[in-house]
From TrEMBL:
Entry protein name: pyranose dehydrogenase (acceptor)
Localization annotation: Secreted
Ranges for domain Glucose-methanol-choline oxidoreductase N-terminal: 283-297
Cofactor: FAD
Length: 570
């Protein structure tokens, strides 16, 4: 059942209490409640996703940023971003960020996960062992606008019977053919890659999104369907914030248990208990925030804001890693840009009408039809003095997201550039002892020189890409902030002044090997030094993947469900 408010909840003890009905949390809620004997509570701060048009229509995802479906976080002053603070959206709705994101479906590379397996000493986190979970999560489907997709994806790497719909971009754009021609013309590094989700993502690829029949597919629409929500042993309470976990005696005096959760909702407070486990799936901001509020973290930091330290676990909130993004943009000889939907209300109404009537047209697309993934050349001098931060030869250093827009003043074609294997790290700390205050979030983006070296290289490579003959007569000259920046110093300054996050914070409750002296959770996702508590969401990634982060959030949920069910079945 779904409860709109905390006071509707009549039960206070459950087998499992899941904090956060987001991407990983919804997967867990589904899998654990499939066991009819288990009573499951899901606590979600946001409202339901149901009937919200901006969530359903793929093209409208941008309007969810800074809406009631967003936590609306802001970072602290960022040292690597010219001292700017940036907005930091996170989904605040059932389905979490999978209900508000740009729907890119990218798994990352084989090397990304094999590195996880090495760091944790658990081969269960390797690419080969996770591939079945990717397939279990996925329900590959044809694009909403029918066309021959042969040669645009590799069916052998996809799942066709899972929960979350994925598909290729739907609506063809006039720039698509030029992107493919430009890549073919340039060759080296731009090679066509039939499927970026095969474990090797490098090269020129077609967008795949968590979209089915022209509609967003989220963790809520795919794992919390009506029949799942109707299960009598599943309880989902909305509009309710988990503020703290309450410590009790564990099985030995020096290991406390954290099986009670303090909740705030509709003016009141209450405490719920898990007889088996509490599972934090509140995301890379929410989960470490709750741990810190509960006295689990760096004891000195906690004392400094007046929180009583209970478990000294200094890695909580540390290692925050994210992908910086900025644009390189060109004046374009076209009348067809996606900015027209912003400037022309009639066109917007027509496109929305087409989507509403038959789930076709430009609003079935997210933002791009082509995504390109690159490594710096093997002989690059960039790595003479510093280690290569990427996981290995199948992991890209940077990404292009090509889109036919970029300005509401003039027609443009642009690429968003993203550093996808960053070395920079940020952190999340408490600013006060009030659990309802925002945490202090610092992404740390561009605080290591190697990330800027990659970024400057990426800008030059974007200029090379758009100077290919395939763009003759279409691309009319660079515009926007990077135009005119030629020296490394000039490009560096423009990047720092204009980069934002592509909203992929991870690693704030990082997994490490069982005997490691750092890290927050062990390879079974159990919080170290305590009992009865796991973290299951994007915060457990030991190192960020070189891709967008929702696909791993889904399979972290899938694998965790198996680990938990196996443990309690024993
Ligand atoms: C604007 C945006 C665009 C993005 N675009 C893409 C993309 O195109 N492709 C991609 O792969 N990734 C994208 N991402 C990232 C991706 O969506 C996330 O990495 C992933 O969904 C995270 O899953 P999660 O389970 O860790 O957290 P979430 O899905 O964010 O779930 C956390 C849930 O916990 C709830 N919660 C938090 N704190 C509390 C609390 N104290 N009490 C109760 N509930 C709480 C939240 O409301 C939320 O529902 C994007 C993210 C954003 C914000």
């Amino acid at each position: 059942a779904v409860y709109e408010q905390l006071s509707d909840l009549t039960q206070t003890t459950f087998d499992f209490v899941i904090v956060g009905g987001g991407t990983s949390g919804a997967v867990l809620a589904n899998r654990l409640s499939a066991q009819k004997d288990y009573q499951i509570l899901v606590i979600e701060a946001g409202p339901s996703h149901k009937g919200v048009q901006d969530i359903q229509v793929p093209f409208l995802w941008r309007s969810l940023i800074a809406s009631e479906y967003d936590w609306n976080f802001t970072t602290t002053v960022e040292p690597g971003l010219s001292g700017r603070s940036i907005s930091y959206p996170r989904g605040h709705v059932l389905g979490g960020s999978s209900s508000t994101n740009a729907m890119f479906y990218t798994r990352g590379s084989k090397d990304d996960y094999d590195r996880w397996a090495r760091i944790t000493g658990d081969s269960g986190w390797s690419w080969d062992e996770l591939l079945p979970y990717f397939k279990k999560n996925e329900r590959w489907s044809p694009p909403a606008e029918p066309r021959n997709t042969t040669g645009q994806f590799d069916p052998s790497v996809h799942g066709f019977n899972g929960s979350t719909f994925t598909s290729l971009y739907s609506h063809v754009q006039d720039i698509d053919a030029r992107v493919i021609s430009a890549a073919a013309e340039l060759g080296d590094g731009y090679e066509y890659n039939i499927d970026m989700n095969s474990g090797d993502s490098l090269g020129t690829t077609w967008y795949q999104g968590t979209i089915g029949d022209g509609e967003r597919s989220s963790a809520a629409t795919s794992y919390l369907t009506d029949d799942v929500l109707d299960r009598s042993n599943l309880h989902v309470v909305l509009h309710t914030i988990a503020t703290r976990l309450v410590a009790s005696n564990g099985s030995s005096p020096d290991v406390p248990a954290f099986k009670q959760v303090e909740l705030t909702g509709n003016g009141g407070q209450s405490i719920v208990s898990a007889s088996k486990e509490v599972i934090l799936s509140a995301g890379a901001i929410g989960s470490p925030h709750i741990l810190l509020n509960s006295g689990i973290g760096d004891s000195k930091d906690l004392e400094s804001v007046g929180v009583n330290p209970i478990v000294d676990l200094p890695s909580v909130g540390k290692n925050l890693t994210d992908h910086p993004m900025w644009n390189v943009s060109f004046l374009a000889n076209t009348l067809e840009t996606t900015d027209n939907f912003t400037t022309n209300a009639t066109l917007f109404a027509q496109a929305l009408d087409q989507w509403t009537t038959d789930r076709k047209g430009p609003f079935t697309n997210s933002v791009t039809n082509n995504v390109l993934w690159f490594r710096l050349p093997d002989n690059s001098s960039a790595f003479e003095d510093v280690p290569d931060p990427s996981a290995g030869p199948t992991s890209p250093h940077y990404e292009f997201i090509i889109f036919n827009g970029g300005s509401t003043d003039e027609p443009r074609v642009s690429t968003a550039l993203v550093v996808v294997s960053p070395a920079s790290r940020g952190e999340l700390k408490l600013g006060s002892s009030n659990p309802l205050d925002q945490p202090l979030i610092t992404t740390g983006m561009f605080t290591t020189p190697i990330d800027m070296t990659v970024a400057i290289h990426a800008v030059r490579s974007a200029r090379q890409f758009f100077s290919a003959q395939a763009w003759d007569g279409y691309v009319l000259g660079e515009r926007g902030p990077t135009a005119g920046a030629t020296t490394d110093e000039e490009i560096d300054a423009v990047i720092r002044e204009n980069s934002i996050s592509i909203w992929h914070p991870v690693s704030t409750a990082a997994m490490s090997a069982k005997d490691a002296t750092y890290g927050v959770v062990d390879p079974d996702l159990k919080v170290k030094k305590v009992e009865g508590l796991r973290v299951v969401d994007a915060s457990i990634m030991p190192i960020i993947i070189s891709a967008h982060t929702q696909a791993p959030a889904y399979i972290i949920g899938e694998r965790a469900a198996d680990l938990i069910l196996q443990e309690w079945a024993a």
